[in-house]
Each structure stands twice: as C-alpha cells, then as structure tokens.
Amino acid sequence: MQITDLFIYPFKSARGIALPQARIQAMGLSGDRRMMLVDPSGHFITQRELPELARLTALPGAAYVTLRLDGISEMMVAPPQPDNRMDVAIWRSIVSAAVAHESVNAKLSEWFGRPVKLVFIDGESRREASAEWAGENSPMGFADGYQILVTTTGSLRALNEDMARHGEGEVGMDRFRPNIVVDCDEPWAEDAWTGLDIGDIRFDFVKPCPRCIMTTQDQHTGSREGANPMPAMGRLRMSADRRVPGPLFGWNAVPRGEGLVRVGDNVTVLGSREGWAIKQR
Hints:
Helix content is 12%, strand content 35%. It has 4 helices and 19 strands. The strands form 4 sheets. It has an 8-stranded mixed sheet. A hairpin with a 2-residue loop joins strand 15 and strand 16. The protein is globular and about 50 Å long. The relative contact order is 0.19.
C-alpha cells in the first residue's frame, strides 16, 4: 500500500490544499487547521452553519497568509500579535487563541455577512485530544477531535458503488476532508488496523470518525444540492458501538513521532484487531 494523497486545511472548514509531501509533528501535519473563524463570543464556526466557508482558500506564506473568497475578494493577513488574545470554544475545548487585527475581522465579517473573528493557534495555545482515546499529552490544533484523519481508496470506491446502485451519484474524497489517503483495495479494512507505519513514523488508529452534514456539501461551492453520501453511509457504516454513534468513514490517528511523509511512500499496517462493530441491515 502507498500514500496516494496528502492534504492540509490551514483554515478550519475552508478548502483543503493537496501537497506532495508534509511534515508530521505532534499536532499533526504541519500547518493543518491552525486558523479558525469564531463568532464574537468565541464559539467556533464551520461549514455546518456557514457553508460559504467552502469557497474560502487560505494560502500560508513566509510572512503573510493570503485569504481568497471566490467571486468576492482577497486579502493579505499578517500574523497576529501574541498579546491580542481571546478564549475560544471548539466542542468541549476552551483554547487561548491569538486574534487577527480588527481590520481583518471587519473584512471577513463583510465577506460572510455576519460578525466574525479570525483566530490562530500559536505558541501560547494549549489543546489536547481526548486522553481516553489518544492517551495523555496529545497536543492538537483546531481539528475537530484528533490530529490526523486517514481514509482509504477502497472504502470510497465501495461507498460510491452503493450510491450508484441506488441512483445517488458519487462523491470525491474531498467530501471527507482527510489528511492522509491510502491506496487499499479492500473496503473498510482500516477498521481492523491498529495503526500504520509510514517512513518510520507510527500512526496509532485511536477512534473511527463519525460523519456529519459537511459530507453533503460540495467542497468548492458549499452547495448541498448535489450527491449526498449520508444515505449510503447509513446503509453501510452505521456504528453499533454507543461510544461513537452515527455513520462512520475514516479513522482518527495520532502520530507517535515526527518527520516527513510523501505521496508514494509505502504504508505498512502495524497490527490487527477485531473490526469496529457496524449495524447490519
């Protein structure tokens, strides 16, 4: 097996960026989900309530980040001052984040038609993944729950075949916003993997990923009018384990080392276990 794709999402819930290689750090892929949109109270905002985020591209540079909203405008954003901070809420986590300059927040509020602020993970921010699943001292950025999401080509193929049989069209891997995509012919084989070894870095598979309405949204336009994978996931992938309810696609992974991974790198399964319990229809 090999890596077929690598993606980072510099701005949480905005467009992904495909990379030929990526540096793996304790927080996941370097540059992944280090920026986030929040409301004035500090509560995080995603495509779930603001589908237009799918039209936003964030391009990190050496000195500035370029933000571009399709059909609207673009702007250069300087790194925030570390003493301009606010506590932000992302699910159950409260994180001290650096806040962009007010002129940036005003422009973003204009773009999205509501008051918003741009915040950054920086050296003073502290957030950890659930110790119950990931173990102690597992730092992360603004990703929903864990550092890295892994998906496989075989599972997407199986999902699309089921959708085709039911006249529901097909979807691309971008709907599931993975970081690492592995070429694997066997669908759902990842349920039985304890983890992967890639370039001598261990990636522990800690928890399957339950999916939400974001998988129904076109990741270039934000539209929910196209193909919808949720019915097929409900038929094929409904969790039977109450600890992780809902339809599943992909696995959350925690890196246990640092280094560089590349598209084309060989992937080795570290070990096997009993597959995740899936409801039978």
